[in-house]
Amino acid sequence: MSKHGLVRKLVGDLPFLDSSPFEKLLDSCIRSKSVFEARRVHAQIIKTQFTSDIFIQNRLIDVYGKCGCLDDARKVFDHMPQRNTFSWNAVLSALTKSGALDEALNLFKCMPEPDQCSWNAMVSGFAKRERFQEALRFFVDMHCEDFVFNEYSFGSALSACAGLIDVNTGVQIHGLISKSRYSFDVYTSSALVDMYSKCGVVDSAQRAFDDMEVRNIVSWNSLITCYEQNGPAGKALEVFVRMMNCGIEPDEITLASVVSACASLSAIREGLQIHARVMKWDKFRNDLVLGNALVDMYAKCRRVNEARLVFDRMPLRDVVSETSMVSGYAKALSVKAARLMFSNMMERNVVSWNALIAGYTQNGENEEAVRLFLLLKRESIWPTHYTFGNLLSACANLADLKLGRQAHANILKHGFWFQSGEQSDIFVGNSLIDMYMKCGLVEDGRVVFEHMVERDDVSWNAMIIGYAQNGYGTEALEIFRKMLVAGGRPDHVTMIGV
């Protein structure tokens, strides 16, 4: 007899002398996530003396909440003749987990005596729904109300800091953790590694990891992802090897991060080895994120045939899978294949458009790159810095000053104020310098360079090459001198200009 059939038989046949059979039936409903069976049990409860039992009512709220049936949970709560703190927390948890945060906030304000669980539900609920500032406000208020933080309080607050890239608040919370009994808790420590990672503070992430007495797969994944996203990507592979040597079995998150690190390094040999492991672990074969990472890795390593093979074998695909193939074909100079893949996409995002525009630019089909940009605008796709960088490269290659100036105006219109500090964007600035220099407007290129708050070696090279090609040899040598003083690293491109 099936579990559902057993529930139906018990509900229909048994005279209940105490509430324990209902408790077991409700537990079964949670495991099966069956709203239908929960309602059947509820209907039977109503016919018994336990209809007003506070413990059973609380369990019903919990069951409906965990089955995702918020309306039923709220009805039970609203009709309760008596409530205790658990009643309030059960419905509060159901509201926050379902994303009904404003309703949860109103309920929280009405609570006669919120406890640690109530506060944690608010901090966690707002953090998970990316309302990070409010999550941190609840965390601070919880502290002001003299409630003791636990691992869930700290973990949710650190998640909010990571979402805001607010390392200063994260450091303050780290200080509180150090003074608490959770300083070596694996959940809290993993959240610390993740927070420092997402804030780009790699050394602190590594220290938090090294300080852990016990580590789990989440801890290792956080550090591997830290190096994969912030660099050096080679360290991600080193941490992965260390993890394997410790006998920790990787999961799909580990493998996707390591494959992405291989893509960044163009480390095809290591990527092939990891792919072979994936094929041995059958449970990962159909994972969408891992499949996307493998397609992207092969595409970035210019192994477009292997990328296509993985792509074709994926049971599920999304815009990320298809965009990786567009990018792979474009980088392999198979722009026709890239355009065909792009045209067949059911859904496109700006990354897809950028990949194809870049492909046309890199393949010397600059007019087509410009036409594609104009089509992007007509489709009301919001361009990114990468879109404009590739458009400017096309304008530079065409020596089309009029179009280049229009692109510059578009950049300012879209808010890429690369000359004004916080939103400094080196890629756009470098592309503008290159465009103006190739169009012979040396002074305009110089003005862009002077207004850049941040520069890299490409910025210096663009100026040196630009001056040299326009007959400004003395100025080229002076910029080269300044590059050395600023700590720039000359390469073969620099030497060509000098």
TrEMBL record:
Pfam families, per database record: PPR, PPR_2
InterPro entries, sorted: PPR_At4g14850-like_plant, PPR_rpt, TPR-like_helical_dom_sf
Keywords: Repeat
Keyword Magnesium on entry: no
The UniProt record lists the keyword Repeat: yes
Family the UniProt entry places it in: Belongs to the PPR family. PCMP-H subfamily.
Database matches in NCBIfam families: PPR
Protein name per UniProt: Pentatricopeptide repeat-containing protein
Organism, as annotated: Trifolium medium
